[in-house]
């Protein structure tokens, strides 16, 4: 049996040895990295120095020749007016100062040597490349060649000699630089890691032109190594390759002025020999350390184990209930600390009992909290039960209206007016029911984490105008004042989810109108709060009303799911209680916040911010460019000061000047004093002289043509006859938008002739004609087929029906070219729409792969649309059907 002493000895020995080995391993690798990096830097530095020395030689040769060529006596000589002996003396002195030069010659413009240090005067060198480049006005450095006079390897450097600084070339100076001198001076002395490394110079053909061994000069390096040098992407590189069968590490620098490569090389085994020696040294030290540590531990453990054994006996006695057993261990180390801790254990026992009692009390507190959580869950279940009861009421109420009005309409055989009234009520109740269903579906998406945003570029003003068009009718029914303001700094186009942003604004405006009494006011204000460098805009939109307000205690739960301010609100005003919760989710997904400012009985302000990218479309002026708008005079007449102020802001955005009048009488006075205006914007309902009276007065003056645009929040059909009789030229609905004003001005005062829109106010919608096409409608429900056939009857398209997917496949297979398009239901007996689509796409007929197939289904989630596209369909329309969307799909795929 192994004693505890031996176990501890082995444990400590292994632990300390492992730590020592680990430290040695880390230090070895650190040292290895330092040595290797130093060697690599040494190799790079040597190659770079060699390149710089040789580049300096070439540069010095250029400089020497340039200085010589600039001498006036040289230029006189080349023009035939100087002394050759003087020139050759200068050339010999230059060679004497710089032994790197092999020879030096001067050539005239015909290529004849007129001065030389090697006695070749009179020879013709007009065919040499260095002469041609020099006469072309360019400096030249040749490849390594054998000098014909000396037989030595040399590099020929030439420069042009000009008659003046920018004058014609009158001759060429050429110097031959000795390659063997470069080799002996700069290449042979280079060494790496003692004597292991060496240097060499190789040209682009792979010939060795510099080496520590003269016998290697002129030999070619292996072609693979030459290709690697020529293919270098940068001016320097480090890589491993073989030369003469020896794996070596190459440090390469490319010359700047020649096609040379400067290489310092070192055999791989020699390069890593210092680190190999370091490894053996580390291993020896580790073995010595291990043996020394074993001896020290064995000597140390004898006293420690004895004290530890006494301490263990004391602990066993205490655990058996003997609190009086003495412990005689007195040491100033960890074992002594353990013994002292055990002595304190008994005295602290009572304190532990107190702590245990405290823990019991904490457990009781947690139990109370669990009870509260249970009660909260019960309240949540009650809220959902109340919500379900409210949903039952919200859905049964419109269903009751639909069923009741349908019964009344069926019994009213001859009374068409009553039938139309019933159909209008049915349509309104259906829209309300669809809104309730949409809220429930959105909330279910949110709770299932499937609620998504789909950003695209859109016009903020047009989006807001569509929302206002829906809300205006409800506000007019309650004779409320609806005021919209858009900050002039707002970007015209944004990139975001237009539909979801419109949903938030529509929900808040609808609530404001709903909870504001008759004659109240609702304000919608949109402005730009800031824009960062990436074009991301922060928008602030507020909806303020003069309605019933919300108490402080009810504001906290207003944005929660399945709740309204109180039960009385639901009973009096209706609603699902989901709108604000959905709006809060949408706003937060757009990186914004939403909050409420309200006092009971003093109205409410719902404010939210969002972040959206500015659109990429150009911000062009809304007014036509072919009219001088500085000369156009506009007058706005309205008894609402806020409307006048906002109209001035809109006019400033459009870049036109305008005057305002607060009543019809004031407008008449301004016209009499300042003359006729080109365009009048006149409110219909004003105290004193109303808009009709003012229009008749303006049209009755013999002061030239003037255009009157009537501004009103009322339905135009209510005012059309009276306005036409008064002479009104155009109608503009409230609230006003900059684009509407611009369209009105462009139409009335632009390049086109004046025209009235009175006769088009009640124009009936025109339907496109598709009588030459045949549609295959696949639908298993009779009423749905009847609805589609009735809706599409005005388009005169021919419709053939299939009752399930299998019948649709048979009909299409029999006559594929008969059908121009297919509307496909999804959930059907026998064969569903997905399977039918896949069968049609798989038919062996060209039209089977191209025929437009549009899903027509109540499955309206995003994943349902994607599944339809994956099955091979072109598009998707959801039930209940929107006539405009169905017509749009026909126009998209048939024309």
Q: How would you characterize the overall build of this protein?
A:
With 895 residues, this protein is α/β, with parallel strands linked by helices. Strand 10 (246-254) and strand 11 (261-267) form a beta hairpin. It is extended.
Overall structural class, as computed from helix and strand content, comes to alpha/beta
Number of strands: 28
Straight-line N-to-C gap = 96 Å
Flag low-confidence runs: 565-575, 751-765
Q: Give the % helix.
A: 40-55%
Count of DSSP-assigned helices: 27
Question: Into which percentage range does the β-strand content fall?
Answer: 15-25%
Q: Globular, elongated, flat, extended or rod-shaped: what is the shape?
A: extended
Rg, Cα atoms, Å:
49 Å
Largest sheet: 7 strands, mixed
Look at the structure and give the mean pLDDT. Answer: 78
What layout of secondary structure does this protein have?
Elements: H1 4-69, H2 72-78, H3 84-97, E1 101-108, E2 113-116, H4 129-135, E3 140-141, E4 145-146, E5 153-162, E6 169-178, H5 179-187, E7 198-202, E8 208-211, H6 223-230, E9 236-243, E10 246-254, E11 261-267, H7 268-271, H8 273-319, H9 334-347, H10 349-411, H11 416-447, E12 456-459, H12 460-477, E13 481-486, E14 493-496, H13 498-514, E15 521-531, E16 536-545, H14 552-555, H15 567-573, H16 579-589, E17 594-598, E18 604-614, E19 634-637, H17 641-654, E20 658-661, H18 664-674, E21 679-683, H19 691-700, E22 707-712, H20 716-726, E23 730-733, H21 738-749, E24 774-778, H22 782-792, E25 798-802, H23 805-814, E26 821-824, H24 833-841, H25 846-850, E27 853-857, H26 862-871, E28 875-878, H27 883-894
Parallel strand pairs: 13-15, 19-20, 19-21, 21-22, 22-23, 24-25, 24-26, 26-27, 27-28
Antiparallel strand pairs: 1-2, 1-6, 3-5, 4-5, 5-6, 7-8, 7-11, 9-10, 10-11, 12-14, 14-18, 15-16, 16-18, 17-18
Helix pairs in contact: 1-8, 8-9, 10-11, 11-16, 12-13, 13-16, 18-19, 23-24
């Amino acid at each position: 049996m192994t004693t505890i002493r031996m176990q501890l000895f082995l444990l400590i020995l292994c632990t300390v040895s492992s730590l020592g080995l680990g430290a040695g391993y880390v230090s070895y690798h650190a040292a290895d990295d330092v040595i290797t990096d130093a060697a690599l830097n040494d190799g790079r530095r040597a190659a770079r120095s060699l390149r710089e020395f040789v580049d300096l030689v070439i540069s010095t040769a250029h400089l020497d020749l340039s200085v010589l060529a600039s001498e006036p006596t040289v230029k006189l000589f080349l023009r035939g007016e100087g002394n050759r002996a003087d020139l050759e003396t200068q050339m010999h002195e230059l060679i004497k100062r710089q032994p790197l030069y092999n020879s030096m010659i001067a050539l005239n413009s015909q290529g004849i040597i007129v001065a030389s240090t090697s006695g070749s005067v009179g020879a013709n060198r007009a065919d040499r490349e260095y002469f041609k480049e020099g006469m072309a006005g360019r400096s030249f450095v040749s490849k390594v060649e054998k000098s014909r006079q000396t037989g030595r390897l040399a590099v020929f450097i030439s420069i042009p000699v000009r008659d003046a600084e920018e004058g014609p070339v009158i001759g060429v100076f050429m110097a031959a630089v000795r390659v063997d001198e470069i080799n002996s001076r700069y290449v042979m002395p280079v060494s790496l890691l003692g004597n292991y490394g060496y240097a060499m110079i190789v040209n682009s053909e792979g010939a060795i032109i510099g080496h520590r061994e003269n016998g290697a000069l002129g030999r070619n390096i292996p072609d693979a190594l030459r290709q690697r040098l020529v293919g270098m992407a940068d001016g320097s590189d480090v890589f491993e390759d073989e030369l003469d069968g020896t794996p070596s590490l190459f440090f390469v620098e490319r010359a700047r002025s020649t096609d040379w490569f400067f290489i310092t090389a070192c055999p791989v085994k020699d390069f890593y020999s210092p680190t190999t020696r370091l490894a053996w040294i580390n291993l020896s030290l580790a073995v010595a350390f291990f043996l020394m540590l074993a001896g020290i531990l064995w000597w140390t453990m004898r006293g420690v184990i004895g004290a530890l054994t006494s301490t263990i006996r004391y602990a066993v006695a205490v655990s058996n209930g003997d609190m009086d057993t003495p412990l005689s261990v007195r040491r100033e180390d960890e074992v002594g600390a353990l013994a002292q801790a055990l002595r304190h254990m008994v005295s602290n026992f009572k304190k532990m009992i107190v702590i245990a009692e405290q823990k019991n009390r904490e457990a009781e507190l947690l139990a109370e909290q669990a009870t509260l959580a249970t009660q909260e869950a019960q309240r949540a279940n009650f809220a959902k039960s109340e919500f379900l009861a409210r949903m039952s009421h919200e859905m049964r109420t419109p269903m009751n209206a639909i069923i009741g009005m349908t019964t009344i309409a069926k019994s009213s055989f001859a009374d068409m007016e009553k039938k139309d009234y019933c159909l209008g009520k049915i349509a309104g109740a259906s829209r309300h029911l669809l809104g309730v269903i949409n809220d429930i579906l959105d909330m279910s998406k949110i709770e299932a984490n499937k609620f998504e945003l789909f950003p695209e570029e859109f016009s903020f003003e047009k989006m807001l105008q569509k929302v206002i068009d829906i809300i205006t009718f409800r506000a007019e029914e309650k004779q409320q004042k609806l005021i919209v303001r858009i900050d002039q700094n707002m970007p015209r186009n944004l990139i975001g989810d237009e539909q979801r942003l419109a949903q938030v604004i529509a929900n808040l405006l609808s609530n404001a109108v709903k909870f504001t009494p008759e004659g109240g006011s609702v304000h919608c204000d949109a402005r730009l709060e800031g824009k960062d460098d990436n074009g991301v805009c922060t928008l602030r939109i507020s909806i303020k009303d003069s309605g019933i307000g919300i108490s402080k205690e009810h504001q906290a739960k207003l944005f929660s799911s399945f709740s309204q301010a109180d039960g009385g609100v639901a009973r009096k005003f209706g609603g699902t209680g989901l709108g604000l919760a959905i709006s809060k989710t949408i706003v937060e997904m757009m990186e914004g916040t939403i909050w409420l400012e309200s006092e009971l009985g003093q109205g409410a302000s719902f404010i939210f911010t969002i972040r959206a990218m500015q659109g990429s479309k150009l911000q062009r002026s809304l007014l036509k460019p072919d009219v001088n708008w500085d000369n156009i005079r506009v007058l706005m007449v309205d008894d609402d000061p806020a409307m006048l102020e906002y109209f001035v802001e809109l006019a400033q955005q459009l870049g036109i000047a305008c005057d305002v009048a607060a009543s019809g009488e004031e407008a008449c006075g301004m016209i009499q004093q300042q003359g006729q205006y080109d365009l009048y914007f006149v409110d219909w309902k004003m105290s004193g002289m109303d808009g009709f009276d003012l229009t008749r007065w303006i049209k009755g003056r013999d002061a030239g043509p003037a255009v009157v645009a009537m501004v009103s929040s009322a339905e135009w059909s209510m005012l059309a006859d009276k306005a036409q009789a008064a002479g009104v030229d155009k109608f503009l609905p409230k609230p006003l938008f900059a684009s509407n004003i611009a369209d009105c001005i462009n139409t009335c005062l632009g390049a086109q002739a004046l025209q009235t829109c009175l006769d088009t106010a009640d124009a009936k919608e025109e339907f496109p004609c598709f009588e030459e096409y045949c549609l295959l409608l696949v639908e298993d429900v009779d009423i749905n087929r009847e609805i589609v056939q009735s809706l599409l009857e005005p388009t005169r398209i021919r419709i053939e029906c299939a009752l399930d997917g299998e019948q649709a496949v048979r009909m299409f297979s029999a006559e594929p070219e008969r059908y121009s398009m297919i509307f496909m239901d999804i959930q059907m007996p026998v064969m569903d729409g997905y399977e039918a689509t896949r069968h049609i796409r798989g038919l062996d007929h060209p039209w089977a792969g191209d025929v437009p197939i549009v899903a027509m289904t109540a499955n309206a989630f995003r994943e349902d649309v994607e599944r339809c596209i994956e099955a091979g369909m072109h598009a998707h329309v959801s039930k209940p059907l929107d006539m405009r969307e169905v017509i749009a799909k026909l126009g998209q795929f048939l024309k």
